[in-house]
Amino acid sequence: MSVIDKIKNAKGPLFTFELLPPLKGHSIERIYNAIDRLVEFDPAYINFTSHRNETTYYERPDGLIEKKVVRIRPGTIAIAAAVKYKYNITVVPHMLCGGFSREETENALIEMNFLGINDVLALRGDPQKGAKRFMPDKYGHSYANELVTQISNMNKGKYLEDTLMEATPTNFCIGVAGYPEKHFEAPNMEIDIENLKRKVDAGAHYIVTQMFFDNNKFFSFRDECRKAGITVPIIAGIKPVSAMNDINLLPQAFRIDLPNDLVAAAKKCTTDKEVRELGIEWTTMQSKELIKMGVTGIHYYTYGGSDNVARIVKAAF
Q: Which residues contact 64 (CB under 8 A, 6 or more apart)?
């Protein structure tokens, strides 16, 4: 069952979460261990992130500098397929504009279709490490709405090669990202909402938000979306802080604000363990309020650790 079907048939808010593929050379067992802690709570689906190639430079023995292109977390589609058939659960691989051509995107979608994976989260992706702005592949997409259009076209049987005869339509359910605190590249929230509507108008079935720590920002974002004519379901994305560094690193990495109360409480902590307990308490509070206010679903960004999310879901759902 696709994500949008699960939303339509749900009797209450959905519980979903996201995992990163293992680093190259590492085992899939870490993924299984994380899922094992959460399957008892009946997750509606699991997201798997995708990562573009990164350009690195290293010094050779002869002293010359050589460029090397690597992908540190490969295997998104394969991992999603493995999890789908091991746990009989809906999986949602991320699909990026950054680092991929339109043909590579089409081929990846065809592979997903053959594997019986019919859900995808369409994202532009971040700029390449060290770059000041996003640069698409020479034959790739510049914006997520273009990626959504390509997937929607495949759902209509329209592939890149317009000479194909009687091409079989796909049936992808398409999710896209929304930003309760505005995408950092958008000049203001109004423009950001307009960009989000372009993705929805291109064929997106639902929205899942970037993490936020103040529920009022989510409620305001949801209201602004509805005023702009965006009627698709909106799933709230949240993350429990789990280490002292999170207080400084999360706002930098994701261009988000942390509430004063959360920062003040974190500053009183002396160990990562104490911060982790604070994160569980704060995210449980967020979850209970979101559920009370009729949110479509709550999506947890786990980054691999799931024991804290298990405690949160047990307390809130």
A: none
Q: What are the residues facing 94 on neighbouring strands?
A: 121
Q: Parallel, antiparallel, or unpaired: how do β-strands 65-70 and 90-96 relate?
A: unpaired
Strand, coil or helix: 234:
strand
Between the alpha carbon of residue 91 and those of residues 4, 68, 115, 240, the distances in Å are 13, 32, 11, 22
Distance CA 211, CA 179 (A): 8
Residue recorded with tokens 């560094």: 245
**3-316 fold:** TIM Barrel (3.20.20)
The structure tokens 């899922």 sit at 35
Query: Which pairing describes strands 297-301 and 90-96: parallel, antiparallel, or unpaired?
Result: unpaired
Q: With the CA atoms of 29, 32, 34 and 37 taken in that order, what torsion angle do they form, in degrees rounded to the nearest 10?
A: -130
Amino acid letter for position 259: P
Does this model's pTM top 0.70? yes
CA–CA separation, 144 vs 142, rounded Å? 7
User: What are the tokens at 209?
Assistant: 């938000």
pLDDT per residue, tens digit, the chain (317 aa), is 999 999 999 999 999 999 999 888 889 999 999 999 999 999 999 999 987 666 566 667 776 676 666 667 888 999 999 999 999 999 999 999 988 999 999 999 999 999 999 999 999 987 777 677 888 888 999 999 999 999 999 999 999 998 888 899 999 999 999 999 999 999 999 999 999 999 999 999 999 999 999 999 999 999 999 999 999 999 999 999 999 999 999 999 899 999 999 999 999 999 999 999 999 999 999 999 999 999 999 999 997 778 999 999 999 99
Domain definitions of the chain by residue range: 3-316
d(CA 147, CA 84): 24
